[in-house]
Amino acid sequence: MAVLAVGIMALLFSLDMLLKQHVEENLDSGEEKELVKGKIVIRKVYNRGFMLHALDKRPCLVKSVTAVMGAALAVCNVLLFTGKGRRVEKLGTAIFSAGAYGNIFDRLVRGKVIDYIGFRSKNDFLSRLTVNLADIFIVTGLILSGLGRLLPGAGSRS
């Protein structure tokens, strides 16, 4: 399962990186391209902080916390993926980790996260919200990993 988990992480990480690079090279800031009947749009937004631009005025703190959390995640992944059983939790953690590593890479290498999936809504908050595939991986992975921990016998074989 460890090899499979690393493969899933690598594949999803690469997909997110490719999409971020495409947006970076092909979209101007403020430009939007409509998808899904205009309800979902592709736009380029930079986030120099954490979720919802938290601490974006403190780039050194953001990078430091990001580096520490990235190292802690790597240790947790090694401990989880080399153990027996817990397949659903491992799958969720692999998906979560791919997203986390995508955003960690952006913060540490680019100094900002590239977000590109936006929404059009009557709700102002939703209309301002812009995420990336890594964010979707993080949420999906957390849900799946949590279910794997809560459900008895979920993926008990290694």
Quick structural gist:
InterPro entries: Peptidase_A8 (IPR001872). With 158 residues, this protein is of the alpha+beta class. The protein has five helices and four strands.
Molecular structure report:
The protein has 158 residues and is α+β, with helices and mostly antiparallel strands. The chain has one domain. Helix content is 60%, strand content 13%. It contains 5 helices and 4 strands. It has a 4-stranded antiparallel sheet with strand order 1-2-3-4. Strand 1 (32-35) and strand 2 form a beta hairpin. The chain is globular and about 50 Å long. The model has no long low-confidence stretch (mean pLDDT 92). Belongs to the peptidase A8 family. It comes from Extibacter muris. GO terms for molecular function: aspartic-type endopeptidase activity.
Keywords:
158 residues; alpha+beta; four-stranded antiparallel beta sheet; 5 helices
